[in-house]
Hints:
Two copies of one chain form a homodimer.
Chain A: H1 2-15, E1 24-25, H2 28-34, E2 37-42, H3 52-61, H4 65-70, E3 72-75, H5 79-90, E4 95-100, H6 105-113, E5 117-121, H7 128-139, E6 142-143, H8 150-166, E7 172-176, H9 181-193, E8 198-204, H10 209-216, H11 241-248, E9 251-255, H12 257-269, H13 281-287, E10 296-301, H14 308-315
Parallel strand pairs in A: 2-10, 3-4, 3-6, 4-5, 7-8, 7-10, 8-9
Antiparallel strand pairs in A: 1-2
Helix pairs in contact in A: 1-8, 1-9, 3-5, 3-8, 5-6, 8-9, 9-11, 12-13
Amino acid sequence: MADMFTKIKQASARLRRQANVTPVHTSRTxxxxxxxxxYLKCENFQRVGAFKFRGAFNAISQLSDEQKARGxxxxxxxxxxxxIALAGRLLEVKSTIIMPKNAPAxxxxxxxxxxxTVIDYDPQETTxxxxxxxxxxxxxxxxxxxxxxxxxxxxxxxAALEFHxxxxxxxxxxxxxxxxxxxxxxxxxxxxxAPQCKVIGIEPELADDATKSFRTKTLHTVHNPxxxxxxxxxxxxxxxxxxxxxxxxxxxxxxxxxxIIEAVQFLFYxxxxxxxxxxxxxxxxxLSQAVRTGKRVGVIIxxxxxxxxxxxTILNSxxxx
Amino acid sequence: MADMFTKIKQASARLRRQANVTPVHTSRTxxxxxxxxxYLKCENFQRVGAFKFRGAFNAISQLSDEQKARGxxxxxxxxxxxxIALAGRLLEVKSTIIMPKNAPAxxxxxxxxxxxTVIDYDPQETTxxxxxxxxxxxxxxxxxxxxxxxxxxxxxxxAALEFHxxxxxxxxxxxxxxxxxxxxxxxxxxxxxAPQCKVIGIEPELADDATKSFRTKTLHTVHNPxxxxxxxxxxxxxxxxxxxxxxxxxxxxxxxxxxIIEAVQFLFYxxxxxxxxxxxxxxxxxLSQAVRTGKRVGVIIxxxxxxxxxxxTILNSxxxx
Lengths: 321, 321
């Protein structure tokens, strides 16, 4: 898919001076523990606190003037919602976000603070897809889904492109996997600029649909899995991301909830980084030896948006080690 | 005091490849709130999680072989203890730390994990100074106090030296003040390499001894002030730091506990940085408008060692705004 790699390079040019060039952090202690040189690509320092800004900005910026004038719509109660809201504000495109009524007030407020219109729905009464279809017919807005969209995938792939420039010669790269937008973009970018580097997607054991899909080559789904890593509670890989994952990703591995908790603790106490559970999956995989490590290992820290109550629960959990 | 500046430059050479060159972070949101370009020098990413490593390593590395063989002693239950313990390990110098019996178990464990010997005492029965004198006479160790020592001050000054190289043209620099080691080193370095830049020391209102001392030119002391910023609970400036603060610091300002809490919250939620309350004093001063801001403002984030319970209390406090 040379085509997707071209899209990633184009996205990278579009994002210049709009997205943060996020820093790479290292830890002598962590390197000693896992016996490798590990580099953390800190997308928790990206705008809106997560890599999602890359895909959202890339997608909206390519709409026609007419589409921009009609606005964009998405459904998300997570980082993609804030990303669409901010990208919409920067590109002067009105954004509407469908969120479940029971979404945390803080997430709704953050999304509204960027100027988005939030429409809530009762998940008991309707689905977000049904509501989205109704709104799209009514208002002729453009839907920008959270991951199953070529321009979104291309935007997410720019993080890995940047990472390989910052740290040449990685032999292993770990990325978290929810709907597969970040993972497939990461894999396409990596296979084009650093073909010697293996790409492994990491999922929670409790939400292992993509791992099952990867191993069986048949799409598996999960329904609202009870993992603490809320960014990976997506039902399945998508029509665009599943084939990309099958073709470009080298392996998938899962990690326990205990390992995720330990990873967030380590990142907080030892590296002074605020990382949400989904963002800590790669570190969890290394700490729990779910993957055989390489010499130079890259880990994408995907985001840092975590509620105080979740952080409290994690910091007060006994260590897994 | 060209002499102290020379010591800072020498310390900087000694710390090369030993201390981390800590990154500078920025936030578009914060800049909008305070109406300035603000640069955060993130010493929470320093080894042991605080600037204290700089002074400890600089001091121990200058001991004679005989002194090194006899070992070093200090008293601290905070970041200086861990700094001496790690610097001692790296320089193969045995370290002994006097800590109150009631110091948090996690701090004692962290200090011991670097190979230091911890001796505890009952603050009801004796003082750390009395115990230190007894141990020094018995074992002929060298005392490295937490701040009132030229080589410690010189080491702490290297953070500002590095900061001015990373961000030229600052017109205001804010540093927290406990015993004045960081603040005086910062001020000496700044007046030598960026004389146009004002240096303001920030203290909690509840521990405003240095501010009073600065204004009256007479040494004031406080006893165990009840501020959440535990790094500033020192009783007073020292014999070495007080004259340096008087000569080189432009002003001192205080911030409320509410402003400190708001600053730690902002750093956590918006900048994804784990910062201890003492480390957030400069941000608190800007948010609460305790200082008139400049155009290009530097803030030294001094450390990130915070107990989970303290972070929980802070994240669950109502915002001051």
